[in-house]
Design goal:
Length: about 725
């Protein structure tokens, strides 16, 4: 298999890099099993049961995909061999970061949708993630047999449900597809970009497969009705229909890189690397983006990613762009599910793995030449729950620190920090399950016994109005700075996220100015932005201040410190524009050093924020709960007790689907409670929905709780305290 894959890598028109994406429990992994079986890697009878790509024990035990898993397949499709580099992605919201990273490696996705449930919240999320990366979708409507077995629908009703799902998907494509692709990427049963079937029962049909096999949909319906799905599978095997759709409608890397390069890399397209990437040239300089890092007990750190230019080979020296480090490639290979299989080389256009890049992380740019880094992963999700972790035995502390370092390198959505007051190690993740999985890995996989605190919600701090102009003094009283803050409109925050701008701004840099203008910031102000941190802006509003340029770096540092730990409860600050209006600086540089300027900046920002009615924001999730009608009352009561805002209630057969917004804090322990309310007969999923201001009646109490937890005085100081 590996030798066949190696040969086909050089025939780029016969390569497809694809992802399997879906809402949880819609059948991704079952579909993957079928395709893997067709390539001869597992027994066909086990397809749908083996969960070949869920090779971590926690995945098998919980019945969910946690890690995006790569596999290289060499099936024969329509009489010709192809190399299919496939990534099976998680459907659970807690592991959405895995999906985001996978999108950077692939050129097309198979979107799997349950025929009964239709397009669900996570379905919408994954298709948006794909389209943001200029990744083309095709559609598989799965579990078609449920419509007959569970809902007893007739052929006409079945067609209506199909149309509803297809229309919903196309609306998402129209709104989110890259420019010029909103129509050409629409999915359509007529051209074969939509298939229908049952992955569990090993069959699928499309308009093109029907022409090839001679079976029509009326026959399919009648066979389903007669419970003869084995006969459908014999006449129209799932793998034949799916692979046909993939190679016919999803692009090869030569085609894809021509339009994907604009999204993934903003460097000079006329440079040597730029020209090579656009052409997907295996003879050009190596340019690879790492999308995943894992640790093999034998090989050590393995960095997996997409090769956009050049060819990876053993012995090649590469640069880890941004780290100012070099490394030598020890081995290269491909993944056959859990197994790393060494090959001779990985040319441009394929997904490969490297042994030897110990310092690399997910998102790392690897190249033979100095080049601009690939664009960072675009995500609007962030960790919302934190736990405190301590080693049970003091001797294990160094190992715990190393394990946490490794886990955060493998998973960029997992964040670690140290509480400077208590010395505790804090681990932040996307939800309870995300943290539970990583706690298990620390104890069982890495052998470090730990004690874990109850989950803690991560809040944001923001302001509700513009502050007055306030003057702060440096500790030596020799420097005075006049500042103010005001809220940034939500739509501008969103555009700043989309523009992927952060850090210290290059003054008078046209690229920066253009991005700020695109976000809705005026031309004059765009030229005066000094820094952006957590999508907060620092703006220079001064005129003719002597020696201001000498303290610019210190002002930025003070701003950054304040944005990472606000005045209410030392939580991250979001949505604030800070303007430096005036400065009176001591003429002697020795009196305006870091110990003087940084504190006055951060403290004056705190004063301004408190004067601008600083408040806490809480994270929220969009819930989708499916329950039998008889438990509707009990489920609704449980939701109301948890401050859930119900936005929609709809009926599907004998089930009721409830959609609502719930605070993350109220969802701690929710899984057990909701299953108890519905006697286990409930399915629920959640999707990150951003932050909203905490209700006024909960503000003071919550601030006090967070401050006490962090070892601070529970009472927030009046704004004048920070100006003294």
């Amino acid at each position: 298999m590996a030798s066949a894959a190696q040969k086909l890598m050089g025939q780029q028109e016969d390569v497809r890099n694809i992802g399997i994406v879906a809402h949880i429990d819609h059948g991704k992994t079952t579909l993957s099993d079928n395709l893997i079986a067709a390539a001869g890697l597992i027994n066909k009878e086990l397809a749908g049961k083996q969960q070949f790509m869920d090779f971590e024990d926690q995945e098998q035990d919980r019945g969910i995909t946690i890690n995006a898993a790569n596999i290289s397949l060499v099936p024969t499709i329509l009489g010709k061999q192809y190399l299919i580099n496939m990534i099976d992605t998680p459907g659970h919201v807690d592991f959405g970061g895995e999906v985001i990273r996978a999108m950077r490696a692939v050129d097309g996705v198979v979107l799997v949708v349950d025929a009964v449930e239709g397009v669900m919240p996570q379905t919408e999320t994954v298709i948006r993630q794909a389209l943001r990366e200029n990744v083309r979708p095709v559609l598989f409507i799965n579990k078609v047999d449920r419509l007959i077995n569970e809902l007893q629908v007739d052929e006409s009703e079945m067609q209506k449900r199909f149309v509803k799902t297809i229309t919903h998907v196309n609306q998402l494509i129209q709104k989110n597809a890259p420019e010029g692709k909103d129509q050409t990427w629409q999915v359509n049963p007529g051209n074969g970009t939509v298939t229908f079937g049952s992955a569990y029962n090993h069959w699928a049909v499309s308009t093109t497969s029907m022409k090839r096999t001679g079976i029509n949909f009326k026959q399919v319906y009648d066979l389903m009705k007669a419970d003869k799905q084995k006969e459908i599978a014999e006449k129209s095997p799932l793998e034949d229909t799916m692979f046909e759709m993939v190679v016919t409608h999803l692009p090869n890397p030569i085609q894809a890189q021509k339009y994907r390069s604009a999204v993934i890399w903003s460097g000079d397209k006329e440079s040597e690397v730029g020209i090579s990437m656009l052409a997907c040239d295996p003879k050009g300089p190596v340019a690879m983006m790492v999308t995943d890092v894992s640790v093999d007990p034998h090989a050590g750190d393995i960095a997996t990613g997409r090769v956009y230019s050049g060819t990876l080979r053993k012995g090649v020296k590469v640069k880890l762009i941004g780290l100012q480090k070099e490394a030598t490639i020890n081995r290269v290979g491909v993944y056959m599910g859990p197994e790393f299989v060494e090959v001779e080389s990985i040319p441009a256009g394929s997904i490969g793995a490297i042994v030897g890049l110990r310092e690399a992380f997910a998102g790392q740019t690897v190249s033979e030449l100095d080049m601009r880094e690939f664009e960072s992963f675009k995500t609007n999700v962030e960790p919302v729950i934190t736990v405190s972790i301590e080693a049970k035995q003091t001797k294990d502390l160094p190992k715990l620190i190393e394990v946490i370092r490794q886990l955060t390198k493998e998973d960029p959505n997992l964040r670690a920090s140290i509480n400077q007051t208590t010395g505790e190690h804090l681990l932040s993740g996307m939800g309870e399950l995300h943290l539970e999985i990583n706690q298990y890995r620390i104890e069982k996989t890495h052998g470090v016994p730990i004690t874990v605190s109850p989950p803690i919600v991560v809040y944001h701090e923001t302001i509700q109005m513009a502050s007055p102009e306030l003057e702060g003094k440096s500790p030596n009283k020799h420097n005075k700075l006049l500042m103010m803050v005001e809220p940034i409109a939500p739509e501008i925050q969103e555009k700043l996220m989309d523009a992927k701008v952060k850090g210290k701004v290059k003054l008078k840099d046209k690229e920066w100015i253009d991005k700020f203008q695109q976000a809705g910031i005026g031309i004059d102000e765009s030229k005066k932005v000094w820094a952006i941190e957590n999508y907060n802006l620092l703006v220079d509003g001064t005129k003719g201040i002597q020696a201001l340029h000498e303290i610019r770096e210190l002002v930025i540092q003070g701003f950054q410190e304040a944005m990472h730990a606000g005045p209410l409860a030392k939580e991250e600050v979001h949505g604030v524009k800070v303007t430096l209006l005036d400065a009176k600086l001591h003429e002697d540089a020795i009196h305006r050093g870091p110990s003087q300027i940084i504190p006055v900046i951060s403290r004056t920002i705190y004063a301004c924020m408190l004067a601008a009615k600083a408040v806490l924001e809480e994270p929220k999730q969009l819930l989708s709960i499916t329950t039998p009608e008889e438990y509707m009352g009990a489920v609704s009561k449980e939701l109301q007790q948890r401050r859930t805002q119900i936005t929609e209630i709809k009926n599907e057969g004998d089930a009721t689907i409830i959609i609502g917004l719930a605070p993350v804090k109220e969802l701690i322990g929710f899984s057990q409670a909701i299953r108890g309310a519905a006697q286990g007969r409930v399915i629920w999923t959640a999707e990150y929905h951003g932050y909203e201001i905490l209700p006024p009646e909960l503000q003071k109490k919550t601030v006090e709780e967070v401050r006490k937890r962090k070892g601070m005085d529970p009472e927030v100081k009046y704004y004048s305290f920070f100006l003294e």
